[in-house]
Amino acid sequence: RSTMDPSQLTTTFKALSDPNRLKILVSLRPGSLCACQILENLHISQSTLSHHMQVLLGADLVVSWQVGKWTHYRLNPVGMSAINQFLSNLQAAETPAPSPSANCYCA
Questions:
Q1: Alpha-carbon torsion 6, 65, 48, 37, what sign?
Q2: N or C: which end of the chain has fewer CB within 10 A?
Q3: Nearest to residue 50, comparing CAs of 77, 28, 21?
């Protein structure tokens, strides 16, 4: 997807607002991990991890697949690209602050 709608942006940034979810994303940067490996790294319960992963999946930041009884996760390149594109577009839109307009009532 080339642009994120406001609803998806809200979901994405809410997902990014939790320190444990940020740690999960950083841990997935080198490659895929099994849920058991994420659990070892974060020292959280399986149910807490499951909740965090559902949030990250819902925000399209990770993808998952089953191998036996364990779920494996990796970063979703599509979701990561969409965030990067949004932030790049936002940064590119920077313009110098305009001088107060004669029509502005607050000036």
A1: negative
A2: C
A3: 21
Q: How far is CA 55 from CA 50, 60, 76, 88, in A?
A: 9, 9, 13, 24
**pLDDT digits over 64-100, tens only?**
999 999 999 999 999 999 888 888 888 877 666 666 6
Helix axes 6-16, 77-92, angle to 10 degrees: 110
Are 27 and 38 in contact by the 8 Å Cβ rule? The answer is yes
What does the alpha-carbon distance between residue 5 and residue 12 come to, in Å, rounded to a whole number?
11
Cα–Cα dist 24/3, whole Å: 24
